[in-house]
Design brief:
two-stranded parallel sheet, Fumarase C, Chain A, domain 2, 62% helix, Ribonucleotide Reductase Protein R1, domain 1, mainly alpha, Fumarase C, Chain B, domain 1, 3 domains
């Protein structure tokens, strides 16, 4: 049996061992074992409902599959490496348990629609798990934002001091990135959650099957509408890997900032000892290794996207063996991102921010220059003229090694007669932040609104996740009843 393939009937020679090893997908497919059995139970029950198989065979096959499922859950099922894939392993094991009736399981389906169904069930579970962890990380960031909505720090463009912002505002920028990531995954979930089973090899089947029944039993929203498309396209996998790539890029950006901020030159944040490492030679070192590894491993995820895009490029309809290679990059992407999110949430939850240092750094770099220009505009100056006036004042301060707030009122008025005593209130850093109250701005009130809006979307997604999980779990319970 070692080299016996399900399709070997028309061949005179057995498969060469090297060919078998080259074509085998067992290492990856083994992670689909649970889903393969559940899909098979739904398929055979549908065959019984439609009168395609006698009820005695349905009962026998279903009981055999439940036995295999328990072996899988108990990690007792021995996967035969000489059998080309998990689907063949399960069908072969079923025949060992119940005899030749096991050969009736494959009636009205192909491995093409079978593997597409298995993979969709695997991905929808992983997507829900990822979104749950996105939500958890958002909550950790929002907790920092709530505490830091009044903590002033430099805002940067081009890594140069630009305008004063709050720590809470900065953290909410990262939070809203993740918010879009969570929504993207949930949109992808809708497209994943369609059932290809019953599409057969590419053209449907002559048996009077009921694809809607199978879809319902497996907790899908609907069957896929075109059999050829169902078995040949992998855009639902590309959706997931793209979403993984985007969240990986966003986490890499967050970690890059935390790495920079934890350096002595910045001194804005300290990593918890639990999520740092030391040096084998320099005893004083405390390295932000978790953040660095998240940043460094982003290439695994983006590489997976390029890999699958290259695989599906120019493939003709319908199924091609190239598609066997879709699972490894997708599984690598989702598992990497899951580990990213879990470790990032733990790291973020334990960060210690030096808000005094952040505030002190706003005293350099003329970070309130724009506010001074806006002050002149409000007094009647054209913005371009105001910009020119303030640039001259900044130049003078650079030459005399002072800040704008160090200038006297008389000095300021030598640049513009529009400047009055209230200028010092206008360029006070707390006021600069407080006055930026346009929707989405950095004022404490705006940050509070942003937190509220983000919490609302997190709660909405948590509800969607809960509903989706209940539907899937309910379908498993009904299948196994």
């Amino acid at each position: 049996m070692a080299n016996k393939a399900l399709w070997s009937g028309r061949f005179e020679k057995e498969m060469d061992e090297d060919v078998l090893a080259f074509t085998s997908s067992m290492d990856v497919d083994s992670r689909l074992a649970f889903y393969d059995v559940m899909g098979s139970i739904a398929h055979v029950k549908m065959l019984g409902e439609r009168g395609i198989l006698p009820q005695d065979d349905v009962t026998l096959i279903t009981d055999g599959l439940k036995t295999i499922l328990q072996e899988i859950l108990d990690e007792r099922m021995e996967l035969e490496k000489s059998v080309e894939d998990i689907h063949t392993n399960i069908e072969t094991r079923l025949t060992e348990i119940i005899g030749q009736s096991g050969g009736k399981l494959h009636t009205g389906r192909s491995r093409n629609d079978q593997v597409a169904t298995d993979f969709r069930m695997y991905l929808r579970d992983r997507v829900l798990e990822i979104v749950k962890n996105v939500n958890d990380l958002q909550r950790a960031l929002m907790a920092i934002a709530e505490r830091g909505k009044n903590s002033i720090m430099p805002g940067y463009t081009h890594m140069q001091h630009a305008q004063p912002v709050s720590l809470g505002f900065h953290m909410m920028a990262h939070t809203f990135r993740l918010d879009r990531d969570g929504d993207r995954f949930m949109e992808a979930f809708k497209r994943i959650n369609m059932c290809p089973l019953g599409s057969a090899a590419l053209a449907g089947t002559t048996y009077p099957i009921d694809r809607r029944l199978t879809s319902d039993m497996l907790g899908f929203n609907s069957p896929t509408p075109n059999a050829m498309d169902s078995v040949s396209d992998r855009d639902f996998v590309l959706d997931v890997i793209y979403c993984c790539s985007t969240v990986a890029l966003h986490l890499s950006s967050l970690c890059e900032e935390l790495i920079i901020w934890s350096s002595p030159e910045f001194g804005f944040v300290e990593m918890d000892d639990t999520y740092s490492t030391g040096s084998s030679i320099m005893p004083q070192k405390k390295n932000p290794d978790i953040a660095e590894l998240v940043r460094g491993r982003t290439g695994r995820v983006t590489g997976s996207l390029i890999q699958l895009m290259t695989i599906v490029k120019s493939l003709p309809m319908a199924y091609n063996r190239d598609l066997q290679e879709d699972k490894e990059p997708a599984m690598r992407a989702v598992e990497t991102v899951l580990s990213y999110l879990i470790m990032s949430e733990r790291m973020v939850s334990t960060l210690k921010f030096n808000t005094d240092r952040m505030r002190a750094m706003t005293e350099i770099g003329f970070i309130n220059a724009t506010d001074l220009a806006d002050y002149l505009v409000m007094k009647g100056a054209p913005f371009r003229k105001a910009h020119e006036v303030v640039a001259g004042m900044v130049k003078a301060c650079i030459e005399s090694k002072r800040n704008l707030t160090d200038m006297t009122l008389e000095e300021m008025r030598s640049y513009s007669e529009l400047i009055e005593e209230d200028v010092f209130e206008a360029i006070d850093l707390d006021n600069c932040v407080r006055r930026r109250c346009s929707y989405g701005g950095t004022s404490p009130r705006c940050v509070e609104i942003q937190i509220t809006e983000c919490i609302d979307t997190v709660i909405r997604r948590e509800s969607l996740i809960e509903d989706a999980k209940k539907k899937i779990e309910s379908s498993w319970e009904r299948l196994l009843a």
